[in-house]
Amino acid sequence: MILIADSGSTKTDWVLADENLERHSFSTSGINPFILSAEQIENILVTQIHIGIDRNSIKEIYFYGAGCSDEVRCNMIKQSLKKLFSNAAIEVNHDLLGAARALCGGQKGIVAILGTGSNSCLYDGEKITEHIPSLGYILGDEGSGAYIAKNFIASYLYREIPNDLKIKIDAENIINKEDIIQNLYHSPAPSAYLAGFMTTVTKYIQHPFVSALVKNCFTHFLERHICRYSGFKETLMHCTGSVAYNFSYLLKEAASEKKITVGKIIEKPINALADFHLL
Length: 279
Known about the structure:
Blueprint: E1 2-7, E2 11-17, E3 23-29, H1 38-48, E4 60-65, H2 71-84, E5 89-94, H3 95-104, E6 109-114, E7 118-123, E8 128-130, H4 136-139, H5 145-157, H6 163-172, H7 177-186, H8 190-195, H9 198-203, H10 208-224, E9 237-240, H11 242-246, H12 248-257, E10 262-266, H13 270-278
Parallel strand pairs: 1-4, 4-5, 6-9, 9-10
Antiparallel strand pairs: 1-2, 2-3, 6-7, 7-8
Helix pairs in contact: 1-2, 3-13, 5-10, 10-12
């Protein structure tokens, strides 16, 4: 049996394929070794994976994850999985490679992940050939849920948003400076905490101020990342992640202004990744 995972900071999507290659899907909390300790990762695996079969029957595991960018962090995931699935051959890769395999298959393309965080690369159909680094929610993550929410919250607290929108947000009592500062400095997953405010952004996305803010955040991502790749105007940009998917029309508008052609936009790469490994 084969287990395939695609993990971000907020959620991990899994597919279990049995001997007949029939698929069973489930989700757990996000597993990011930059954010979580080995103990926390193992706790998620033990308490949230309920596959209803003997774990020793899993023979192969392919794990693609945010934060799996070096050997040390990949080994954190690998060793945690090995404790549960002792008979499995385990391969751990960065979620960028997973996104590239899901979106491009064997074709060249620019790949973008826009979810809780953001990342990108240039893929030649087999491997990643160029990568503008993702600097995380403090220094980077342009275009991500955390980045958009951070800008939205700051605009509210700096009194930059229009009064009609401020009145609506005030009535909901959803943005409190003291609570936000407390959570950002003490939450175990601050980027996911920030991205939680995307519910409010989505609610008010039809407001011109909010739609302009989201589009501007996408423009920052395109300028700092996509426009730095060789031949970006001649290469299709494919995207995955909830933010890219839910606000695709704004992403396409921003891309068009930068002469970037958008190809596929999918919410989750897990099913295409399963195809890559099983078909």
